[in-house]
Amino acid sequence: MPDDLIPDVLNDRCPSRMVLNHVTSRWGVLVLIALQDGTMRFSALRRRIGGVSERMLTQSLRLLEEDGLVLRTAHPVVPPHVEYDLTPLGVEVAEKVHALAACIEGNLGQIMAHRTE
Amino acid sequence: MPDDLIPDVLNDRCPSRMVLNHVTSRWGVLVLIALQDGTMRFSALRRRIGGVSERMLTQSLRLLEEDGLVLRTAHPVVPPHVEYDLTPLGVEVAEKVHALAACIEGNLGQIMAHRTE
DNA sequence: TTTGATACTTACAAAAATGTGGGTACTTCC
DNA sequence: GGAAGTACCCACATTTTTGTAAGTATCAAA
């Protein structure tokens, strides 16, 4: 019975670690939060997420797509038209990520005050 | 009225981004989850969190301490005895992080199945 | 007619994260 | 007496992440 049977992020060899890393990656978090507003095109996402480069946005979207959290729909037209959505599982994960971000945003005053002590 | 007045992680210049990065960092996430079990010493933490190096554990603990999420208590004896705890705010944040990790662990089967398609 | 928008990819470079091995000062266990 | 445990720090090297700039094909607006 390998360690992997009961998923555990504290276990070095558990593949949940990899997924957690995708989800909690610098831009992955923000992609999930941004997509909570609904379907978005690549450029719209890029404008919404301050500071992300095209390269990083593409890469983050690809990883989340591979994990089945994000759905990519490409319309083969010129100029290109591609839409991104959360999958049902993506919605679930995005909610948790959003709760975390909101918690930090809500306590930012306290945190910043502590940092300057 | 600067952008920073209403914390928003999607905003490039909002300091909540920095805190979010500490919390969602590779080892930061796991430190918070591990500390949910209660007070732990450095070595215990290191054993609990699979794959973390001393260097990275120290660094992660320092960042979370600066943000006021983790409390470090050093007893000046030889050999050294140092205890780590979550602060009240740390408990709150750790709950969200744990919910996220649990969500991923719980859906890992589905995710891994999707990845191999 | 030049510019900008679309959704990327690729090569290259820079920056950040992470690991490695060593050292510390003492105690207890074998 | 030698080894291991404690909680680190430091310098160095490597790995990973991230950014930058350019290129692609086509259309529409100025």
How would you characterize the overall build of this protein?
The structure is a homodimer of 117-residue chains. Chain A has helices at residues 16-23, 26-35, 42-48, 54-66, 88-106, 108-115, and strands at 40-41, 70-75, 81-86. In chain A, α2 packs across α5. Chain A has a single domain, classed as Arc Repressor Mutant, subunit A, CATH 1.10.10.10. The first copy, chain A, is 56% helix and 12% strand. A three-stranded antiparallel sheet of chain A has the order 1-3-2. By secondary structure, the first copy, chain A, is mostly helical. Chain A starts with 15 loop residues before the first helix and ends with a helix. The interface between A and B is large, with 47 and 47 residues. Chain A binds a DNA duplex (30 and 30 nucleotides) through residues 25-27, 41-43, 53-56, 58-59, 74, 77-82.
Give the beta-strand count of chain A. 3
What is the strand arrangement across the widest sheet of chain A?
A: 1-3-2
- Shape field of chain A: globular
CATH class of chain A: Mainly Alpha
Quaternary form: homodimer
The radius of gyration of chain A is: 17 Å
The low-confidence parts of chain A are none
Cα distance, first to last residue of chain A? Answer: 50 Å
Helix/strand order of chain A, N-terminal first: HHEHHEEHH
Write the CATH homologous superfamily of chain A.
Winged helix-like DNA-binding domain superfamily/Winged helix DNA-binding domain
Q: Major β-sheet of chain A, in short?
A: 3 strands, antiparallel
Given the helix and strand composition of chain A, which structural class is it? mainly alpha
The CATH architecture classification of chain A is Orthogonal Bundle
Mean of all residue-level pLDDT scores of chain A: 92
Relative helix content of chain A:
55-70%
- CATH topology value of chain A: Arc Repressor Mutant, subunit A
Work out the largest interface and the residue count of each chain: A-B, 47 and 47 residues
Estimate the strand proportion of chain A: 5-15%
